[in-house]
Fold these 2 entries.
Entry 1:
Amino acid sequence: MSEQLERLNRLPLRGNLRGLEPYGAPQLDVPILLNVNENTHGLPETVHQAIVSAVSAAAAGLNRYPDREFTELRTALSRYLEHGLTAENIWAANGSNEVLQQILQAFGGPGRTLLSFPPTYSMYPLLASGTDTEYVAVPRGADFTISPEAVAAAVAEAAANVVVLCSPNNPTGTALGLDVVEAAYEAGEASNAIVIVDEAYAEFAHAGTPSALTLLPGRERLIVSRTMSKAFALAGARVGYLAAAPQIADALRLVRLPYHLSAITQATALAALEHAGALLANVEDIKTQRDRIVDGLAELGLKPAPSDSNFVFFGGLDDPHAVWQGLLETGVLIRDVGIPGHLRVTAGTEAETTAFLDGIKALMSSRV
Ligand code: PMP
């Protein structure tokens, strides 16, 4: 046992936190960072300036607590999402991680289960243990897909209290069909399950890929979770949100900390939403770079999964760690998600993407 773990275990830590590791994508000082699915394109200058002005105005009132209901932000988010949604349907928090945590605080907890389908977002089990919710993992098939039948059977068998479906899925990149969401929702009727569709990467999907937002009418246990960290290039501002029936937001009001969204956060998010057009133009370029990566890796004989996100998951590697290390030595950091034979890379700017593709081509031709 490491000295650090021994020290930690001397404390009266809750049993279900003993031996756990914190979420830990390496934060290394490397010129090209393609490891945590950030928006690599930065903020356009107009958006940067708009945020600076909005934050400056908000700073003048920082002696007061912010609007606890962040009504202006909820209205702006509902307009952005369309689908007939209004402010009552929206809730937000400090990143979609906090949104998910609040959902588990309200609907999970001791004696309750969170069901998901790995390989999927690595925070789900940590959010479960942090809220004392039992995590039930039903693995995907060999090709990392899940069928509506398999999902329905898993939901029924687990009598799940909360189900989380990630679409497009992290780390595999592929979106789910709405039939999978419908199947989870219907199978969850018996246990009155909350069904979350985590659409953190929705804006990067190929045209025609439907969002679970279309399924919300009439489904009061369905939650669609989104974030401003990816398409809106605001990972550092920490703004995530959800769309659902108004009573879901009412449930989360019971567990949120008062004034959890700072005035600076609200001002930043509002300014960015006013410039959604400029930010979504960058999303189009990121999609182009993503498709270059898929094509480039396939040309090298590797096996990229179809991607509806801003990253590409690829297999066909004999020694993924050696490829990860070789790229790091050329100044490109990508992600080893611990799945045999596979790695994951975030789409970069055009120059960053070229550096990645050149780097991996050189490594594959020297047969790492
Ligand atoms: N969901 C998924 C699938 C993610 O990949 C991430 C970020 N990596 C998040 C949620 C959380 O993002 P944030 O808290 O920045 O909104």
Note: The pocket of 4'-deoxy-4'-aminopyridoxal-5'-phosphate is lined by residues 37, 95-97, 121, 166, 170, 198, 200, 227, 229, 235, 240 (CB under 6 Å).
Entry 2:
Amino acid sequence: MLQESTAPAPLAAGPLPAGAAATAQPSPAQPTATQTLPAPPSEPPAHPRISIVIPLFNEEESIPHLYDGLVAAMAHYGKPAEVIIVDDGSRDRSFGLLKEIAARDPRFTIVRLRRNSGQTAAFSAGFDKARGDVVITMDADLQNDPMDIPLLMAKIDEGYDIVSGWRKDRQDRYWDRKLPSMIANRLISNVTDVRLHDYGCSLKAYRREVLQHVHLYGELHRFIPALASQVGGTVTEVPVNHRARQYGRSKYGISRTVRVMLDLITVWFLGTYATRPIHVFGTLGLASVGLGTVVGLYLTFIKLFMGASIGGRPLLMLGVLLVVIGVQFVTVGLLGEMITRAWFESQHKPIYLVRDVITAYTEPAEPA
Ligand code: UDP
Ligand code: MG
């Protein structure tokens, strides 16, 4: 850990440009990030209450403002906090700037990934380093407002395990950002049964013990609330501030929509059928074989009893296809059952997660 006990010279940030002030609406009670930043402590916090995890990819212009905003927000929040910034293989000056920050402020930890691995992997790397009771995630591009952290923490203190930010007044383009995300949010909400308005907002808070049961792959970071609820976490949301991107470019295009849909299928399937894949594939398979059999019986009947010629009928092809596909579905289901057993049994994973046990019995101590 890099440490420096002298008070820092503020990073050359200056105030946010006019556009930011127009779109950001910090409530009057909240201080804004200004030049008079409190000096950082000389030691990293021993027991941080929160760990702020931030994935960052090529955001050199945002970094000085991000630092100022975080320092002001941590002072505003008041409890011990650490920040983990994951440099996801940036190719600009980002890492150099982050290194300077870590040298001047021991609350900041920088994790640099060897190559650009995507936001989900970056989150995951940050979670592995986090020590706080609660993990807060947010973006590095200044679109989220760290001053909202106390709002999220108030819900955590009420007892929720996951608090998701809701960009009620989202500052992004309509047709390629807000519209697809509106449709996606509806769908995800219906399919996963976790009722949120805004899955895509990065500003979220998670109790760390819940995150330990969540395994992330691909671009599943949007589904962490759904995945966490699948392991028994309670989820809620609060409206948060959102600002337009000031610097750099968004790292995503419209093609993300397709990937979100595919991820939704994965999350739904694994959440519902991970321990019983035959129920999905078997049902589809039996339905298909059944339908194909009916078609076949009908064709046999008209051939045998009505003397019709069936050789050239498209229906014959359909019947055969349905039976073949049906058999394949059932086979895939059986393979799925074998993979499930291999997954759970090879790692001695239980198929349940215990929250509490209440019993008068105590395990006898191991003989010495
Ligand atoms: N990001 C990252 N790795 C990537 C893409 C993005 O760490 O491969 C970071 C990026 O620097 C930002 C956050 O993830 O802090 C969200 O990205 P972006 O702002 O481009 O997404 P949008 O807000 O447009 O959905
Ligand atoms: Mg953004």
Note: The first helix runs from residue 18 to 23.
